[in-house]
Amino acid sequence: MNYIRRGGAKERNALSVIYSSYNYTSYLASLINNYNIPLAEVKDVVHDAIIIFRNNVKANKVKEDTNIHVYLTSIAKNILLNKTRRRKTEEIVDNNWEVYGSEDTTESYLTRKEMQEQISVLMQKIPETCRELLKLWQQNYSFREIASVLTIKNEHAARKKKYKCFQKLADYAKDFPELKQFLA
User: Fold this and answer.
1) What does the alpha-carbon distance between residue 123 and residue 137 come to, in Å, rounded to a whole number?
2) Which is it for the CA torsion 116, 122, 125, 131, positive or negative?
């Protein structure tokens, strides 16, 4: 880990050793089977895990006696769980927050479509940062991730901003009482 902290050629060599010794064959196969994710995406996850590990080592967030394989495995699992959670959310919610049910009737579909149009109108009234924040939140991004993406000070500030954005949306929704239940 000292080589990684120092940087340069020794860092590259240390990362190369970690990358090659990370038991790809059995580990990648288990990820593919357990999470039903294509090989290319799994390789990206492993690569991202190594990058996160490197950044954490440089930030002195990793203890010297840490088992690197276990550390990388836990990072990779967290990345995969977040991707799986987002993928499931994206299957349910599209860009316009449209939700499809398995038992749609024509009437419920039209009612939902009208509400979506009203929500779209409301969303255009709030600031762009609020729209972005609410979309990321709807896609199950953590407040820490939202803060990072939108360059907000920290996760607490992101949570507070989400609350204020919802308040703005609720204020505009006064003209649409049937939407109140969705914004509460």
Assistant:
1) 14
2) negative
Instruction: Note whether 57 and 110 are same-domain residues.
Output: no
Of 76, 91, 60, nearest to 27 (Cα)?
76
**Least confident segment among 24-38, 42-56, 126-140:** 24-38
In a shared domain, residues 118 and 161:
yes
Domain membership flag for residue 137: yes
The token duo for 71 is 């550390």
**Same domain flag for 81 and 13:** yes
At 92, the pLDDT band (50, 70, 90 cuts) reads: very low
Q: Say how far apart CA 89 and CA 162 lie, in whole Å.
A: 19
Residues 30 and 76 in one domain: yes
Beta-carbon count within 10 A of 43 CB: 13
- The residue with tokens 């790809």 is 24
Query: Considering the entire predicted model, what is its pTM?
Result: 0.48
Q: Is residue 97 part of a domain?
A: no
Are 86 and 139 within 8 A, CB to CB? yes
Structural domain harbouring 173: 106-183
Strand partners, 99: 93
What span, in angstroms and rounded, lies between the C-alpha atoms of 16 and 33? 26
